[in-house]
Amino acid sequence: MRGDGTHANTGLASERVRTRMVERLRELGIRDSRVLAAMAAVQRHLFVDPALASRAYEDTALPIGLGQTISRPYIVARTIELVLEGIAAANSAKVLEIGTGCGYAAAVLAQIFGTVISVERVRPLHEKARANLRPLRLAHLRLVFADGADGVPAQAPYDAIVAAAAGEQVPTAWVEQLKPGGRIVAPVGSAEQRLTLITKDDGGRVARRAIEVVRFVPLKPGTA
User: Fold this and answer.
1) Which of 12, 130, 154, 155 shows its CA 20 to 30 Å from the CA of 140?
2) Residue 4: partners with Cβ closer than 8 Å, 6 or more residues away
3) Is 71 in the active site?
4) CB within 8 A of 77, min separation 6: which ones?
């Protein structure tokens, strides 16, 4: 045990299980090396309750309190990979995340993109994410407490928008805040949800494509 009260091999153990997680993501079809590297870099166990830390690198959603969950690693990786397919220069791109939750996906996004704005409607989760992310010192990541259905118009336009909550439709505000050539990746639906890719071409025309069946918490209006 070190002088700070932690076991010296904890970090190595975490690194080993993260490596196994990344191998599973590759087996599930994640191919983008930037996504795999970002997933390997962020310590997911720091974003969950200590009682669940032993399960942090399983490919499963886990509760984070207040009826919310941390998304399964595959979904985080798949969402980002879909965004990257349409972005030429990720290190200069601005991305809006709807639903900060505990901050894990925001931390992964911040490994790849030039600017990340993440909005959360539940104040205790917003504060939890701030506490989780503070030690990482991600200067290009900004957290906002607001109604995510409204987007964050003050920081628009965005190269991409990703969402961690499902609505019956993608809010108009998100489409309006998306740059021409940009992409939205969000779950859509209620009884059956599908991860959906929305693109806006240079003429402002919008197209939608359902990707795969998913399960997310519902997108709710207002703040709490």
Assistant:
1) 12
2) none
3) yes
4) 25, 30, 35, 36, 39
Beta-strand runs (E) in 9-168: 62-65, 68-70, 94-98, 115-120, 141-145, 158-163
Distance of alpha carbon 189 from alpha carbon 111, whole angstroms: 29
For 117, the 3-state DSSP assignment is strand
Residue-wise pLDDT tens digits, 65-112: 888 889 999 999 999 999 999 898 999 999 999 999 999 999 999 999
Considering the candidates 33, 54, 71, 92, report the single residue annotated as catalytic.
71
Range 47-64 average pLDDT:
92
Domains in the chain, CATH or no CATH each: 60-214 (3.40.50.150)
> Residue 221 has what DSSP assignment?
-
State the pTM of this model. Answer: 0.91
Contacts of 175 (CB under 8 A, 6+ apart): 184, 198, 200, 206
* Residue 53: count of CB within 10 angstroms of its CB: 16
Rounded CA-CA distance 171/119 in Å is: 15
Sheet containing strand 94-98, edge to edge, reads 141-145, 115-120, 94-98, 158-163, 178-188, 193-200, 206-214
pLDDT tens profile 138-151 = 999 999 999 999 99
